[in-house]
Amino acid sequence: MPTLSSRAGRATLGVLMLTLSALAVVVAATSTPVRAADPVTVLSSGFEDGTVQGWARRGTVELVENSSAVARTGTRSLLTSGRTAAWNGPSRDLLTTVARGTRYTYSVWARAAAGAGSVQLRMSVERRWQGTANYEQVVNSTTVTDGGWTQLTGGYTLANDADFFAVYVETVSGTASFHIDDFSLSYLPPSPIQTDIPSLKSVFANDFPIGAAVGRPQLLAERGQLLAKHFNSVTAGNAMKWDATEPTEGVYNWTDADAIVAFARANAMKVRGHTFVWHNQTPAWVFNDAGGQPMTATAANKTLLLARLEAHIRAVGGRYADDVSAWDVVNEVIDENQSDGLRRSTWYTITGLDYIRTAFRVARQVAPNAKLFINDYNTNVPAKRDKLYNLVAQLKAEGVPIDGVGHQQHGNISWPTGAETDSMIATFVPLGVEQQITEMDASIYTSSSESFTTPPADRLASQAARYKAWFDVFRKYKANITSVTLWGLADDETWLDSYPVSRKDFPLLFDVQLQAKPAYWSIIGGASPTTSGQASPSASVSPSPSRSASPSPSASASPSASPSPSASRSPSASPSASASPSPSGTPMPGSCRVKYTVTNQWNTGFQGDVVITNTGSAAVNGWALRWTFANGQVVNQSWSSVYAQSGANVTITNAAWNAAIGANGGTASFGFLSSWSGSNPAPATFTLNGSVCTQG
């Protein structure tokens, strides 16, 4: 289970009053996707004027000074030397520069000082409010050498109250000197969300609740609007974990969790609690004995650890008993490489299985109306799946109140397949437990060596096919699956930006500008392919990233990445396509115009966008647009429409929600993905409901 970072105003920030009335989101009307605006730079530091340009040291002994020794651009940089601790380094106050709720991109170039060799640097922010400091990473550990410049870049949204806010650079360990240069702080002007597209919660209303893992930034402004429009369930990505709620024994912090719960109440959303017990993000004090030393396996320590666990669950679970409908009671307890299948965490080495038994028992007492889940990753891998099955069967036989199994479903464009996902769900059906998809995302990468600043169209097509394969399975098992949750809201903020390596990833249904991606269109029912040309990912074998403390698909599984077999489907949200759709639409002789645009093209495929304009005086109710490809192009996916192709002849019919085209300039639009080779000419003629349309 990944960490979902809580990422960025002016002047000293006042107390954030999150009342229910303030949290009820009102969505302003907008239309189809907007073009991404250019970034706005609000601060830059190039150090060419010979000063430190507002940068200062964090400690009391290190030197932060302008230097002419090396520079990335120009002739000067900022040198930090004389450090005596890893946290010593350059810092820049940003309290009066950033606006709360705006996501900023932080970028700086760094280089180790001459003779320092290789060092590990990271960039973080420090936020203080009324004497309490919080530290959050913007860029994880990055290797920097004395032989060249390396960029550190990441995003952060200040979403909490602050009376001090600064960015800083430090080493992970050691005290090596280093230079920084060309720092910039920028943001993309917010794009309005698309309000004229189907909401996910409406599309899946008869199947299961659809949720997103969020932090406080996702409750604000356009993100809050997107969250409220599409989702009817939220998971607190970090705010309910032990380190967030009880960092010091008996001292609780409810600020962020309360904000998420208040938003959910105001917008009629379910809340998933995550998580009472995990081997990560648990404060060190939890595993210290009565004398403050690390616990060893003694009876006294077992008693103490279970008492701490019970007290924590009673406090957190009790506070949210009226709001949380499901809890991930224990998280990631399975290690398929152990003979008994149990992870050798400190929880296990001190208490055996009793920490799991205790957690479920106490959770049932304090939250009797919540469903209680055991949650894990890679449950599609047979070895791990079967060990989890055996554990759940054993505990249920003992009377432990486990209501369900949570499948994290972290994947990528190649894995897991629809068949593997089907087997995962089917395995647990005989146990009679609920099943939930709890942390789903689909990385566009299949290797740690890959990196893209913008997602290639073919990767987005493969991602769309992967999501569709998964959702086909989820709908097939909708009697068993009681919730589906994505691990994030949009691509502007994802844990995969820093795991397994630092790079931008694009794993969700909405892009960095909060606009719907092909993956969104693939699952809402706007695309119901009937030809054999359905888009599917490459069949090359690409093991998922290796896993240590943080979750991601384990390389030990190394599943074969093959196109997802077609799963049996429950009724889709849009009409299914037939070989020759013939809607009873109103004929429009000479009263239509078509604009056909190739928006992306790569060596084997392309993305097309089509806008139909009704130039006549009568509305159209139900439409079919037909054209003929001249060079063997084959449509393999569409959105906001239903497609069929016979030879070179393509027919696109309306989706259930966009059948009407208003008179005198009304429009309908859709997009599609197609293969091509050789050349890719546009169709010569388009007919709408049998009438030839003009073009342009």
TrEMBL record:
Its EC number is 3.2.1.8. Residues 535-583 have a biased composition (Low complexity). The keyword Zinc does not apply. It catalyses: Endohydrolysis of (1->4)-beta-D-xylosidic linkages in xylans. Residues 530-592 are annotated as: Disordered. Residues 1-36 form the signal peptide. This is Beta-xylanase. It comes from Catellatospora coxensis.
